[in-house]
Design brief:
This protein is mostly helical. It contains nine helices and no strands. Helix 5 packs antiparallel against helix 7 and helix 7 crosses helix 8. The termini are far apart. GO terms for molecular function: DNA-binding transcription factor activity; transcription cis-regulatory region binding. This is Transcriptional regulator, TetR family. It holds the Pfam family TetR_C_11.
Length: 226
């Protein structure tokens, strides 16, 4: 049975349902462009095409708005990454490479990458946001990546290592690439662009295989005699 005109949502209703996402999109753009502290709530409302009062109906403060932006753009992706981990049956090295590539594709290559730059540059002045970001992003991401590394150890695919240190070694280049994207990488006249997916793949390869040839003796390759 086809839906009658009366049963279809009105344009106004559809607009109302889309409003939270429009506010989040406007907030993300402005927070990245101007910084969190410098962005005024009325600017977010204006860019979304609503009044400041309407903004506060959905998000009662600028801090709550930023938290919602983080949940929408990063926390959700981490949750989906956890689903990938749970459903993967192959070798752990492949899982790790896939997970890191997906992290860059879903966050690093998108507007969400600006959130990381924003947090690093401003969070010291907003301790409540710092704690929220730690709980919502940092700790879940570390648990996810650390769980993959531990999986490899438990299955005998990786040698025993300090898991937390490996997680930091994997994630630090990601942060660098996102900062570069929103700093030197954003300068159109600088020939300093990085091929981020290749850098991510190389980082995973280095963590898995290192630089020293597998046939080299312990301690690294011997120096040639003069």
């Amino acid at each position: 049975m086809s839906r009658t005109a009366d049963s279809l949502p009105s344009t106004r209703q559809r607009r109302k349902e889309a409003r939270p996402q429009e506010l989040l999109d406007a907030a993300l753009d402005l927070f990245v462009e101007k910084g969190f502290a410098a962005t005024r709530s009325e600017e977010v409302a204006a860019r979304a095409g609503v009044s400041k009062g309407t903004l506060y109906l959905y998000y009662p403060s600028k801090e709550e708005l930023l938290k919602a932006v983080i949940r929408e753009n990063i926390s959700q992706e981490i949750a989906e990454g956890e689903d990938i981990v749970r459903g993967f049956d192959g070798p752990t090295a492949e899982l790790l490479a896939h997970l890191m590539a997906e992290w860059w594709r879903r966050i690093g290559e998108t507007r969400a990458s600006g959130i990381c730059k924003l947090i690093i540059s401003e969070v010291r002045n907003f301790p409540d946001i710092a704690q929220f970001y730690l709980d919502e992003v940092v700790l879940p991401a570390e648990r996810m990546i650390g769980g993959v590394v531990q999986r490899g150890i438990d299955r005998g695919e990786f040698r025993p290592v300090a898991v937390d240190d490996v997680v930091h070694a994997l994630m630090a280049p990601m942060l660098f690439l996102m900062l570069h994207k929103h700093s030197m990488g954003a300068c159109p006249n600088l020939d300093r662009r990085l091929d981020a997916p290749r850098v991510v793949a190389m980082q995973v390869d280095l963590v898995l295989n290192g630089l020293v040839p597998r046939t080299a003796p312990r301690g690294g390759p011997r120096k040639a005699k003069a």
